Amino acid sequence: MSSMLPRTPPAPGLHLTACSDRASSTHLARLLAGAIVAAFFSVVGCGSGGGHSSTVHVVNTVMPDAVDIADIWGFTAGPDTEPAEVEGPPWQHPACFGADPKEVHFSGELVGETTARKISLWWCGAEPLAVTSVKIVAGSSPEFGLDFSELGGEPSAEDPLTIPAGGQVWLVATYSPADLSPLNEVGLPVMDEATVAITVPSLPSGLLVKMFGAGVTEYCPVAVITSEQGNTVLQGTVVHLSGAESWAPYGLIEKWEWNMLEPGTSGPVQLPDGDDFELSASLTHTGLYSFFLTVYDDQGLKSCEPAAYYVYVNESGLGGSISVELVWHTPEDPDETDTGPEAGSDLDLHFVHPWAVGPDLDGDGEPDGWFDIPYDCFWSNKNPDWGSFDPNVEDNPLVLLEDLDGGGPETISLAIPENATYRIGVHYWNDHGFGPAYATARFFVSGNLVAEVKDVMMVDSDMWFVGTIEWPSGKVEIQIDPATGGYDITPNYQNPYFFQ
Prior knowledge:
The protein has helices at about 25-35, 65-75, and strands spanning about 15-20, 40-45, 50-60, 95-100, 105-110, 115-125, 130, 135, 145, 160-165, 170-175, 190-200, 205-215, 225, 230-235, 240, 255-260, 270, 280, 285-295, 305-315, 320-330, 345-350, 375, 400, 410-415, 420-430, 435-445, 450-460, 465-470, 475-480, 490. By secondary structure, the protein is mostly beta strands.
């Protein structure tokens, strides 16, 4: 890719600080647990009256029809450019509400049988929380379900599910595979997928929980990875991973195989000392590390799928309160894991401030805002100065992850948003001869996945206006082209100041 400005490696993330005179270890732990990955935490003095400050450092690493999700939650947006207040009790922040686990992995389950898994919905607020809807969104596999019998029925606006103050409730998710799952090109089952949308009127961003499973004719061992350090660490940290919770339905686990993918490398490598149920690794590079575990039982049977565990390493453990992630798949690229110039398709994520201007290339009579400097955060403007003049205030967006040669992820994070509506876009910079790509955009608020648009087909030079995210409500509105009823994509989008 050629451009007016060269690309450079992404810088570390940002941080979010909440100030409270009622902070407690329980509330702060819940605040941390609400982030997708959070690994640095401190409590310091904060003003008079014995207040506390909790600093949460978040980096997002980590799929349904977006229009249906928008219908469920009634996403809206409205511009407002006044600075956002970030002080207040931690339970007023969206990170005070979450699900555990955030993703439910059924692994390989017997065809024709039903397996249940419990999902905890927790809340650290001082008052009870009403959940008015828990639904599996359209486009999910019909083999997944929700069992509300222990809760007395499905939640509704008239009869909500109430989470007690500082407490939790349990949902029951089910998976009943109807047939044997096909295998992919490397011999692993193609997973069935579903998404649960959870609606809370007082927290407009809501919550999404992903579910995965595969139908098998005989049970496989199940690989499970846990870690003492969590998913975000500082550079130089030695992480300790364990596969001790892996299990086999008909025997014992006898063999563990660990693989690791380092930042900037093209594929995972098997670790020479990775034959024990425990693994220690020194993470010396900044960026995303991926660990994979395959297990074998005492009959020699291999796990149906490897367990995956992701650790983001940065210099200062910083993260963001709004994060947007882009991943994509290019069917005509035979190896989407290889790296190098023009080794894959190149899509770019854009995060735009309401003050952005520029040419009107989509013909709607308004400046597009894409590629505007300083008010579009993208690969050529990775850490623009949008907020306070105080350089110590981390209120500017940051490109955390960037991918030039296929697949992603690309991630942009904003720790302290303004009271404003931000626009999110994806540009297909160059297909490098690999043809159409299928893009997925994900919106996170305080580490919680709140909206997703999956597998939108794009061709070379397309500009996709994905949608908007409003702060402080966290509401997301997916952009729909009123003329076509489909996604808002402008073809042959070529900004005159950036040459492809």
